[in-house]
Amino acid sequence: MGYAVHEYFARADYRRRVAEMYLAEPSSGVAGWRAFRQARDRLFREHPQSALEPAERAKLDTLPFFDYADQYRFTVTIVPVVDDEGLSIDTGGEDGVQHYRRVGRMATPLGHLTVFWLTGYGGGLFLPFRDPTAGTDTYEGGRYLVDTIKGTFGRGMVVDGDTAVLDLNYAYNPSCAYNARYACPLAPAENWLSVPVRAGEMKYPGPP
C-alpha cells in the first residue's frame, strides 16, 4: 500500500483510540478526568496522527490543563430548536465550509450554549465554545466540549432524555491549536461565554 493509504488507516485508528478513551472506565469524577488526561497525553506523544509535529511529541510530558473543579460540572435542560435555518462555518482549510443545524440550547450557570448537528454524511453532535480566557490561558480560537464525528462520546456532555450533564473539565483544544497545518471550525458568537472557564485544556506553549 502507498503512503496515502497507510495515512488513512492511521487516521481511522486514531479516531478509534479517541472513542475508546472517552468510553473507558473510570469515566467520572477526578479519577475519570485523570485517566482521560493520561490517555490523551499518550495519544499526543505516541500516535503518528498526533496533531503535534515529531519534535514536539518527543519533548511532551503532559498537555497543560487547569486543575479539576467541581463547579464546572452541572446538569442542564436541553431545549429543542425547531425550524432552524442552519449555520455555516468556514474552516479556512481543505474541508471548506461546514454546515450545521442547531438542535438544542442550554442555559448553563455560565451562559447559554447551543449544540449543533453536522449535516454532512453521517453527521455528529458539535459543541464548541469560547470564553474570556481565550488568548491568554486558553487557545484564542476557543475550545470543544463535544465533537462526536471525531469520537468524543460522553464525559464532556452526557445526555439523558431532555437533560444533560456538562463537565467543562473535559474541554479540549482543536487540532489547529497545536499545528498550523490544521484548520478547524471555531465557536460561533452565540457560544461565546462572558464568564471565564478556568477548567479543561489550557493553551499549548509550543507552536503553531
DSSP, total strands: 8
Total of domains: 1
Give a short account of the largest sheet. Answer: 8 strands, antiparallel
Mean of residue pLDDT?
A: 93
Unreliable stretches (pLDDT < 50, length at least 5) are none
Helix count equals 3
Radius of gyration: 17 Å
How would you portray this structure in words?
With 208 residues, this protein is an alpha+beta fold. It has one domain. Helix content is 22%, strand content 25%. The protein has 3 helices and 8 strands; from the N terminus they run αααββββββββ. It is globular. The relative contact order is 0.18.
Short description:
The chain has helices at 3-23, 29-46, 54-59, and strands at residues 73-80, 87-90, 97-108, 111-118, 124-129, 143-147, 157-160, 163-167. With 208 residues, it is of the alpha+beta class. It has one domain.
Write the layout of secondary structure elements.
Blueprint: H1 3-23, H2 29-46, H3 54-59, E1 73-80, E2 87-90, E3 97-108, E4 111-118, E5 124-129, E6 143-147, E7 157-160, E8 163-167
Quickly list its features.
3 helices, alpha+beta, eight-stranded antiparallel sheet, globular, 208 residues, 22% helix
